[in-house]
Specification:
Elements lengths: L4 E6 L2 H11 L3 E8 L2 E7 L8 E6 L5 H10 L5 E4 L3 H10 L4 E8 L2 E7 L5 E7 L2
Parallel strand pairs: 1-4, 5-8
Antiparallel strand pairs: 2-3, 3-4, 6-7, 7-8
Length: 129
């Protein structure tokens, strides 16, 4: 068994696609119209056949209160691995990304938390080997 697709709720799929591709650097994998919404996934350009991230519309009545509560408590919805948290932090800040947590070293793990502009906090992380 392996993880094939995971989701992040987004309040606007067009805005989310732009942020996740043009800012974070993912690439679009699937874009299938489904009525008002789309089956819209992105992948890492380093692993185009790897795990897909579904930019899931947050239309379900439980989604917004759930994501709002996470944001209010400062809890990231998900996390992405990077090779160098401080360098990625500087790159993303240069693109106008707002961080709610600056790079923080916690033993062998360095993290930072960003606002994805679509209703979520996302943690970037690197674990020293």
């Amino acid at each position: 068994m392996r993880i094939n697709i995971t989701s992040v709720f987004v309040d606007d799929q067009v805005k989310a696609l732009r942020f996740y591709t043009e800012v974070l650097g993912f690439v679009k994998k699937n874009d299938v119209p489904l009525g008002e919404d789309r089956w819209l996934t992105v992948v890492s350009p380093e692993n185009p056949e790897g795990t897909e991230l579904l930019l899931e519309p947050s239309r379900h009545p439980a989604a917004k209160p759930f994501t709002d509560a996470l944001v209010a408590d400062g809890i990231p919805f998900t996390q992405f691995a990077v090779d160098d948290v401080p360098a990625e932090y500087e790159r993303l800040r240069g693109l106008g990304v707002r961080f709610t947590q600056d790079p923080t070293v916690m033993g062998p793990v360095t993290t930072a938390v960003l606002d994805d502009t679509c209703g979520n906090l996302i943690q970037i992380v690197h674990m020293a080997s």
